[in-house]
Amino acid sequence: MNDVIAMLEDDNFMEASIFLNPPGNGVESDEDSDVEDGCSANHLSSRQLTAPAEFTIKYAADNVNSLDDDVDSDTAGDTRLSVPDHNPPESDAEATPMHEARPSPSLSSSVPPAVELKWMKKNIPAKTFAGKPVERRFTELLSPVAIFNAFFDDDIVEFMVSMTNLYAQRDKGKHGFSTDVNEMRLFLAMLLLTGYVVLPRRKMYWENSDDVFNKVMSDAMSRNRFEEILSVLHLCDNQNLDSRDPMAKMRPLFAQVNQKCLQYFLNEEHLSIDESMLPYYGRHGSKQRIVGKPIRMGYKMWVLATSEGYVVQFDPYTGAKKSGGTRSSATSWGLGEHVVLDLLEELPRGVSYHVFMDNFFTSFRLLNHLHEHNIQATGVIRSNKLGRCSIEPPKSLEKKDRGFFDQRTDSQGVMTVVGWNDNRSVYVTSNVVGVQPTSTVSRWCRKTNSRINVVQPNLIRKYNKHMGGVDRCDQNISTYRISTRCKKWWWALFAWVPDMVLQNCWILYR
Predict the structure, then answer these.
(1) What is the pLDDT of residues 224-276, one digit of tens each?
(2) 344 contacts 374 by C-beta, under 8 angstroms
(3) CA 350 – CA 369 distance, rounded (Å)
């Protein structure tokens, strides 16, 4: 049943036929659940989770997975994802691996391409993608303030001023209220100061007590004025909002900051895509709870970042049916695939970046689609997304010696998938990197109670090296996160933007 739950949570899931045998005594079916309005997998007993199950699950790509490991040998090396394509190749010559840039339409096509794969036991051939990124550098030394003002330039700050004045005067009836660019910059600076001088309550910065009084805050602005700006701060026109977008109040600012992040991107080749959690404890339909994350409760932000943590593009999660932003037109992709295409949409065309992603985003049809658009991609892939690939299954792989790996490459040489046994089995697929050259890594062996050298395939080494960019960004932000809190539901989203820009500026300044 654990396997059933994991497969039902796949973003490409469409429908399933499931039969669950009752637990051991045939009586206790749901009495261990403490959820009144329904059963939750987090509250099931061990008897229920280990109960036998028979199921067939259909995904959006039409590949069917079940618990039955007995696959017909004649079709074991063949996976067909029979989704119609707008422009199928007219000949075999057009289906060969791409070694030069080709003009292409929007990256986020509305219909996923058809993928027909036949797997062979060989390494992926060497490839040369056109347009390797040329890293940029600043032509002059800039101060930290100058770099920050390049992101929060006069256009963005003036927009914040105009929306705040409009909201205060028209929507709140404060006709005497008015702020300007200099005061708004001062307000932003005071917010950033609360990130590294943290007090339990923001009013303490103005108290007369020697242990909490902050002269910088007190001299910069009065407490009442700070509270007044905080109460009317706004980032949109309430009379011109998209009712279909849960994040409409933040979209204008997100769009402008995304443009700045891309403008000052130093054009590094290796990028990673992952989710970033923003702490929020109020009520909102897009709030997430993810057990095991450092921040378990809050908004989820999809982030494209470099290996060092520089955020290139970002987009908030708004729900499984709505997420992916407003920039692309992809509707037939799964959620994870949609996010990848949406974040990569704004990158310069004709440049071949290498994107790394985890198993939530990775699929064979996505890697094939990125290959056709001159984008290198490597990612961990779930075992239930392997389809009928004849690679060693997880249970068999985990019985092998530590460091054992098995590889399959499609007959066209576009993609390869490698199963590797470390602490447990893991599958990594790529459209550019293969097993060779292998390397060795040091691991602790419980059997011998000592460290041993384990063989590691090349694509896994590269994945481990370049995948942690978003986590590095989260670590940087958490160090000096703005501590000022507010009852506005969008405040956590807004406060994340200066925090993120600050860590981007720090990386550029270094």
Answers:
(1) 999 999 999 999 999 999 988 999 999 999 999 999 999 999 989 999 999 99
(2) no
(3) 15
